[in-house]
Amino acid sequence: MKFLGPLTRDKQDTLLLVAAALLVVAPHFGHLPWWITGTVCVTLLWRVLLTLRGRRLPPIWLLLPIALIAMGGVFQSYGTLLGRDPGVAMLALLLAFKLLEMHAKRDLYVVLFLGFFLMLTNFFYSQSMLTGLAMAATLVVLLTVQITFQYTGTVPSLGRRLRLAGKMFALATPLAAALFVLFPRFDGPLWGMPGDAQGPRSGLSDTMAPGTMTNLALSEEVAMRVRFDGAPPPQDRLYWRGVVLSHYDGRTWTRIGGRLYRRDGDAMTLRVDGKPLPYEVTLEPSQRRWLFTLELTPPALDVAGERVGVSDELESFTVQPIHQRVRYRAAAFADYAVQAGLDPALTGKWLQLPAGFNPRTRELGRLLRAEPGATDAGIVAKVLAHFRTQHFTYTLQPPLLGRHSIDEFLWVSRQGFCEHYSGAFVFLMRAAGIPARVVTGYQGGELNPVDGYMTVRQSDAHAWAEVWLAGHGWLRIDPTAAVAPERVRLGIGGALPREAPFGLSAFQNNKDSWLARLRFHVNAANNAWNQWVLDYNPERQRNFLAELSSLASDWRVLAALPALLALGWLWRRLRARRRRDPVQTAWDRFGVLLARRGIVRTPDEGPHSLARRVAALALPEEKKAAMAEFLELYAALRYRALDDDERHRSARRLAKLLSLSR
Asked: How many CB atoms lie within 10 A of CB 452?
């Protein structure tokens, strides 16, 4: 690399600025178009090569057409120049191009402050704890660059500049934390933009077709976190009710959208008995309207900042799509009855079947009803026994089905996921004259022993059936449990375990392994970040300040304040003594050493006059040489201009010479 020449200070500063720009832009590479990522990388590499070789920057007549073509490419990719994504793309390109157009110190600051702004835009895409830590590290690097530009003489080493920037960041952190806690909050997410900022997310919809749940089962994205006031119920009772699908067109189950629930309505009677099980749900943003509740939860949800509705099919939902994390409390009952006294004449919509589809399943339903002594409960039991004994398979990779998909599933493939079993079961019940419907939601959850929260993921998405029996009302029937009972007892991971990378399957499935414990701690930390940072809304701020006010009025706290102030004053005094100038400390100790040898240093006596008196002492030559070198080095430290690194080395040498002089 000799042909590159030595790295002057200007080259070092420029390379540090390019490295900081790369740290700022790199997190955006995951969502920027490939050509923008490539253009930014090539531009930064171009700037590095020009710096190392000492070449001139390209002229403006070359950069301007490139910038205009790039802006045109942004418009071609997004269809607009407004909004979050095209705005971030243009900022990334401008930051890279500006590095090729720096002719004055002002241009350096333009690049630097553009980097600060672009760093903040990372929070438009992710507000996770990992993103926060990465941006904190990036901020320290940007501060290091800014500090570097302030030096006009000798520049400290990069490590010392990084430590100084880290100290500045640490000093600003308490003030930022106080402003975060005390500054008036507003309703809405910590970071957000309208329009394209609300991108699509995975989650349950109001339709279900073969493959719908299969796609969700492959997602490890968190759907919600739940905290129970007491011990959580067993896995086989964790049915989180979401959307009810009552209409079938031969391919897709869809939601009808029933009337709003009325507590005193004749069509909607609800009875609950036993001890309630209170719980709190923290629902992740889904861009949909559904609120999920543990079966069975009476319709009495209260979500801060949201208008909540409940249908007569016990679906809980918000009026507007959920764009931010919401929290609500509820209580579930294990003993319940829903619409037990419903007039059978009102069940027509739950008997609907499309004409021209699945003739064999229709015929089977007719035969089941025609059997002597057939009852609704008996037909349900017989169909579940059929699923249990006729070699059906629970799988994430069922074969594709044709027009008569339920016929092919029941008599040909016999392989499917929960949507196949629930859809086929409901169709067969309706064919037998039993009102039935599909319910989608989540089943199960993973309890984190670290923080006590249960995590429900998109992979826990599930579909089951409800049948209406006279005198009993709507009963939950899960045909998937008849085929794969481990799905309900152990969750999707126990029923269909997936291979972990690098041969870690045993660790992944063992909840007591070190890998599982590490995962639990990481999930607990992320949950705490979500609960106390991202979800610090006006309501939580009011509650916190109220608790703080009541605590401040406690006489014990008021009595402890003077003691705390005294301890703080003492700590500052001790810290000031520890941070005393090491050169002055060594000089004072050397004076004590000389006094023991009979030389009393006068206040106006300098190191050179002391050196003549030390030379007359009757001491071994090595001690006299160490003392003479000590005095010479002290004079250099006090009266000569040394850079920071040389001063640091000399101070350490001074301490060593002091010990040799004793």
From this structure: 12
What single letter denotes the amino acid at residue 330?
Answer: A
Distance separating alpha carbons of residues 190 and 201, to the nearest angstrom? 19
pLDDT at residue 435, as a whole number: 96
Q: How far is CA 510 from CA 408, 445, 514, 519, 642, in A?
A: 38, 16, 9, 12, 60
Q: Which residues contact 358 (CB under 8 A, 6 or more apart)?
A: 250, 404, 405, 406, 407, 427
Q: pLDDT tens digits, residue range 586-638? A: 888 888 888 888 788 777 777 888 888 888 787 888 888 888 888 888 888 77
Catalytic residue among 28, 418, 420, 460: 418
Q: Is 535 annotated in the active site?
A: no
3-state secondary structure of 244: strand
Measure the N-to-C terminal CA separation of the chain; round to a whole number of Å: 50
What pTM did the predictor assign? 0.72
What is d(CA 42, CA 490) in angstroms, rounded to the nearest whole number?
A: 50
Given the residues 478, 521, 535, 604, the one annotated as active site: 478
Task: Report the alpha-carbon distance of residue 406 to residue 412 in Å, rounded.
Answer: 10
User: Using 50, 70 and 90 to split pLDDT, how confident is the model at 516?
Assistant: confident
Q: Encode burial over 508-525: b for 16+ CB neighbours within 10 A, e otherwise.
A: beeeeeeeeeebbeebbe
CA angle 212, 214, 215 (to 5 degrees): 75
Residue 462 catalytic? Answer: yes
63: cis peptide before it, omega within 30°? no
User: Strands 436-443, 415-416: parallel, antiparallel or unpaired by DSSP?
Assistant: unpaired
DSSP at 306: -
d(CA 109, CA 486): 61
Spatial strand order of the sheet with 436-443 comes to: 293-294, 239-245, 436-443, 461-469, 473-477
| Beta strands 253-254; 454-457: pairing state | unpaired
pLDDT tier for residue 152 given thresholds of 50, 70 and 90: confident
The active-site residue out of 28, 404, 420, 462 is 462
Q: Over 50: is that where the pLDDT of 2 sits?
A: no
Q: 3-class SS at 336?
A: strand
Alpha helices, DSSP H, located in 450-537: 479-483, 485-490, 492-495, 505-509, 514-529
Q: How confident is the model at residue 12 (pLDDT cuts 50, 70, 90)?
A: confident
Higher pLDDT residue, 436 or 496? 436
Q: Give the integer Cα–Cα distance in Å for 473 and 269.
A: 9
- Please report, as a single letter, which amino acid is at residue 655: A
Q: 95: closest CA among 70, 69, 114, 76?
A: 114
CA distance 419 to 483: 13
Task: Read off φ and ψ for residue 530, nearest 5 degrees.
Answer: -65, -45
Active-site annotation holds for 85:
no
Q: Which two tokens stand for residue 181?
A: 């806690």
